């Protein structure tokens, strides 16, 4: 290969690496402004305001540490536009190199799991991954867009086939008003599980796959742009306004800010099909784009940099003016200590906790635990880890994962091993609530996406078990200090999540009448 070609590819690889690193660690300008607006909307002293404070703090830490904003660095999806004549195969190869390097440098969590064997490839490459879509265009430079959309919010995507019946809203027909109902419902059903306050991209029409593609394409629009289609512009505005009356709030804690942006696209459909596809994105809305010189491989321009940039550095901290109790917890915890905790209490954990998520919960149903879990705390978390020069593990990012996936196992596992507290985000269901009451346990809600904030509370990694499940799924033994979370389900049958779901359904039902 000639020197010119080599240096083009090397420069291109560096440019793509920078895109990946920047997307994972530095939240775009338009998203920062939306989060700032949410902060201003919340009342001081509420759980939602405190969570947004932590989120803002986390954004600063991620930028300063050049470390992932959230530990789930998503499924890297690239959209590339090239001038006629540019070699797309080379770009694909270079993207893969950049992804592998970014994973080694802990800018990305190894997130590519073999769907049949469950084994993690370790480098974010795998069948069909990363997702790369090419298009040609008439311009003379290359444009690369990247979105890192995590699994928790991806799980809250939803596709409606009209006509349909919707909880709280009744019949949704094949017209603009039916579309309106589907979109409102999509926001409501996400509750706090996709790390609200979120953003949605909506695709009207197409088939099942092109409809979702269209929805995801909307996530590349700027938060503050205006839809050129007047009807859709009105609908976008309406959805944001009404969704923010649901009272779901940040993390589903209740509050004013539930949805920070809604972007709707439309395409033709088949006569028999009428899909409304909704792609839900968490507050950690990581998407970025660059223009690249097609001769040199250098970055010419970064997108999403327009307008005022909020640094979140000099923000005033919201005072805890609520009458929530702050309780210090240290494992092993007794049943009496747990029974004293009530929904709304804030806990500060110091000492030992163990991570355990999907693979561990499945494993523990039919195996012994590798450590004594009696009185212990299980943290639903799949961290980003790195080895330092001495070969010791260090935590690079460690926020909670969505707990509801463990609902089939959690109660049984708590009882089997004597676990007293489980911590994650988004809450759990009736089976776990009943087990907490019977056995004497609590559910603690940490702030989703605050991966830098929590990594900072982890003082040491003291061991790891079941590493065969891969880094995110292994059981890490952690020593923490002042690790803060909120009791959202207690041992007396109370669940903040059940309450918020019920009250927000009442709010949703107010919008059953025709509007469009
Ligand atoms: O996989 C994770 O760490 C988190 C996930 O994105 C989630 O929201 O549950
Ligand atoms: S943990 Fe929350 S912020 Fe992170 S990817 Fe999942 S939904 Fe997004």
Q: Major β-sheet, in short?
A: 5 strands, mixed
List how many beta strands DSSP finds: 20
Percent of sequence in beta strands = 15-25%
Helix count from the secondary structure assignment: 14
- Give the count of structural domains: 3
In which range does the helix fraction lie? 25-40%
Shape: globular
The overall pLDDT average reads 97
Strand order of the largest sheet: 2-1-3-10-11
- Structural class by secondary-structure content: alpha/beta
Radius of gyration: 23 Å
Low-confidence stretches: none
Ligands in the model, by name, code or SMILES, are: (2S)-2-hydroxybutanedioic acid, iron/sulfur cluster
Question: What is the terminal-to-terminal distance?
Answer: 61 Å
